[in-house]
Amino acid sequence: MIAFDTTFLTLMFVPSAKHSVTNAKERVEFLISDIHGTGDRIVIPTPALSEILVKSGQARNDIIQTLTKTPKFLIAPFDIRAALELSLMTDAALRTRDKRSGTSGTWVKVTLDRQIVAISKTTGARAIYSEDNDVRAIARREGLNAYSVEDIKIPEPPQGGFWKTK
Hints:
single chain; Rossmann fold; alpha/beta; five-stranded parallel sheet
């Protein structure tokens, strides 16, 4: 399993979403197709889901319907296991006397980022896709692979036109 943070959800559901990376929407669509082709699932941590729902207006119901009716997605709550995982992460940071563990956000943001990572980790995700540098740093510290839109490579079409007939 892999997990998606808010930007990836936005690129999935907001047709007009802009991004600084060329072909960002196409990259995310390719990634989703590739993941679904392997039979893998995409974890959607509930804090990330809530972030996209905040400004989605009437599209809220469509987003929730798509994510809950498609078995390829797993909406994962902040449950007891994730709470325990978050507490372990925070305890480890406090022991180093840097409760933010080198991240740059406010304490509330760091806690939310850790929630997203804790949920991803406890659901068995091996990687998280996020545009947030802090989320990626926390994920890597917790043993998850972490990627951004820029890391997604869309394969080039075959050269030489070998599929053409004479």
